[in-house]
Amino acid sequence: MTRRIAVVSGGLGQPSTTRLLADRMSAAVERALRAEGQDVTVDVVDLREHAQDLTTMLLTGFPSAALKAALDTVATADGLIAVTPIFSGSYSGLFKTFFDVLDDGALDGMPVLAGATAGTARHSLAIDHAIRPLLTYLHAFVVPTGVFGATEDFGRSAGSTSEDAVPLGARIDRGARELAGLVAARPPRGAAPADPFALTVDFEDLLRG
What we know:
Helix 1 crosses helix 6. It is built from seven helices and seven strands. By secondary structure, the protein is an alpha/beta fold. Helix 5 links the parallel strand 5 and strand 6. The radius of gyration is 20 Å and the shape is globular. It has one domain (2-207): Rossmann fold (3-Layer(aba) Sandwich), CATH 3.40.50.360.
């Protein structure tokens, strides 16, 4: 059974540390789900590609075809990874706008792994005082571990073994395991509920006695 993970990346730059963190988080979730015996597909929604369409939808109430596809990608996923840059102590306006235009109930009960990036670790609390309340308000189930990456976390070489390089990778792996565990334990999102009146024995067999 294939599980679908949606990734919302709110990075504005190109390249973007926010997208880099989102990619690392999605790779860890994919590994964790495969360890749970699940097949998985990952679809990335890069918000910078939809910035103009998001503004247009706010003004008109109608999404473009590309934005509609992005919204559907999130609404039909089994789990979500949501990552934003931190501006003025909170999520970006582009990130907030995307979640503003999601249909009501789109995130009901959806497991979510939240992440954020900023220039300094002083902004790390934004995950808990801004991002988590937003997603919880939308009825998502946000896993306990949030993943924050400061600029300095991305300046180290991939093979770095220094002690201060460990926490980011450890948080990514822990958050990935939490998300994967929730996704694997639930039926696929959108699956038809079991019919309580469905016959468990073929009707012809019943007639034969």
